[in-house]
Amino acid sequence: MKNYIADTYKQVRLQEGQRVIEQFLLACYFHPGLPTKELARKVLLPVPVATAIKKELIKAGAIQQGSGVRCTAEGEAFIEQKLGYGGLDRELYEKLMGDDEAWKTELADLKAEMETIFAGRPQVDVQIDQSKCTVETSLRRAILCLRHQSLVGKKILCVGDDDLVSISLGLLLKRLFPEKQQRPEQIDVVDIDERFLQYITDVSKQNALSVACHQADLRQPLPKKLQGGYDCFFTDPPYTLQGMALFLSRGISGLQKQKGLSIFLSFAHKSPDFTLNMQREFVLAGLTVQEVLSHFNEYEAAQMIGNKGQMIVLTTTELTTPTIKHPFLKSLYTGEETPSKREYLCKRCKRSIQVGAQAKIVTIEQLKKRGCPRCKHQSFELLSRRRAQD
Fold this sequence. Notes:
This protein is of the alpha/beta class. The chain is 39% helix and 19% strand. It has 15 helices and 12 strands. The strands form 3 sheets. A 7-stranded mixed beta sheet has the order 5-4-3-6-7-9-8, with helices on both faces. Residues 112-307 form the N(4)-bis(aminopropyl)spermidine synthase C-terminal domain. GO terms for molecular function: methyltransferase activity.
């Protein structure tokens, strides 16, 4: 079968990259009969560029003109067999693509299923800046991936995944394609935390999801088997500038060398000066900002960031490259950059306990697990927090 996208790109060398040809073809498939001007609007292209793509796809036999533009039988077969849309629940797909709130009713049972899965997640390790996003947030990330046409038929990398985005992606695909069939998607997770990797592996096996896990310290370059093959990646990195730059770099090294690929970056809302430095990092990496969704992410018990974070959708360009290619030896996590010590009060016996990197008990999670050194009670009140050097 012809590869209409690659063949058309050879003939029409678009600055936007070949992904826009795929989007044009999908628009013809899902909205047959649209005029060229309307197709151009849907894929955000100038009309002359859309016209050039249309002419080449007609010449190749993928689409035809007549009462608007629509796919030929060969074009439909290519989309269903090669791009992976065969067997799609089109009604559900079109509702999710067209309505930001549709998932609340259409996927209510899936959300309930995920609530059970998420309840069994391992305890977060705050020393490596883990925090638990809500089930709703994880599911909305998967739907965002779908709406950017980066899910169906794609290879997806999760650079760190304590938010179980891989599970949300896999379960959404099962819902979109209800017939049991061999799917082309591949979802890979790379993380340092073996507890989360094992949990994701177990859940994936129980639900027959195409998710594979790989243990690695991202201070080191991405394992070679994960380099250069993915269509998009998700990351929710440490909320330091160097942490963001490192996780972005490792994710970029996993992407195909292609313009127009999507990167889904979750990050805390920051000050204007910090945001400016973030944007400089994007420019240095050759990325453009496609979309910023404020308060998109919600986290459980993450008071330090107000329980909310933003989703930044980035897009690759001709100049995209990792800014960090070698082992990373500098401070990475928030606790390394600004170490702090905290004083907690046991709610039962009123004993004061020091917690921090330089104390016997490093995190509040460890304290709760061990219990008060005097009475073993597991409920505490934060009395004070200050920098370790103060």
